[in-house]
Specification:
Layout (H helix, E strand, L loop, with lengths): L9 E4 L2 E4 L5 H16 L5 E4 L5 E9 L2 E3 L2 E3 L15 H14 L13 E7 L5 E4 L10 E7 L2 E5 L10 E5 L4 E4 L8 E6 L14 E7 L17
Antiparallel strand pairs: 1-2, 2-12, 3-4, 4-7, 5-6, 7-14, 8-13, 9-12, 9-14, 10-11, 10-13
The structure holds succinic acid and manganese (II) ion.
Length: 230
Amino acid sequence: MSALVPRPRLGLAPGAVHVPGWLTPDQQRALVTACRSWAAGPVPIRRTRLPRGGLMSVQTVCLGWHWLPYRYSRTADDVNGARVAPFPEWLADLGRRALADAYEDESAGDGYAPDTALINFYDGQAKLGMHQDKDERSGAPVVSLSVGDTCVFRFGNTETRGRPYQDVELASGDLFVFGGPSRFAYHAVPKVYPGTGDPATGLASGRLNVTLRVTGLADPADRPGLTGPD
Ligand code: SIN
Ligand code: MN
């Protein structure tokens, strides 16, 4: 989206910050290219099946750890059993920069080491209901990057999935961070506006969202006492 009318950086609640237009056009293009390759495998992007049998409308592929309702696994146990693609260091660097900029504090990203990313693709009809990101065993912030069509992002409170909540529009290149007291706030994507993205990003239609998270999990082999003989 062009910055004809610049949208200001907005703190919605303690720890929750929206930074419009944070990714440059080049970074958006690079992210789309990377997401396209992750979507192809080793675990193909797909609609997640929920425990009651329904399919999510959003399509998802993961890095580092695979998310499935409602846990993380190194392998995509509900898709093809393959180990997910590794979490790249350049994406962790971007996450640290995101925290420094969102919190306007050069040290805010120090020590931030996201180990999973959920890449969500929304076609014109896709939505995401009110939920908390709570399958992580860490209170480290979630860093959210959006490319493509603009959506309504509903940001609620930590207690209930209802009001009070605030609706903001996330457009291509926007950063949203929720950490600190807002880390476990309910949030949703009730609407995507088809045709609002710039095809120059490489995304002809739809919306991509990448959330970086810290799982707080360790591989069994990383746990003391479970390692093999050395
Ligand atoms: C999510 O809640 O995990 C994704 C949010 C978004 O698509 O902006
Ligand atoms: Mn979420």
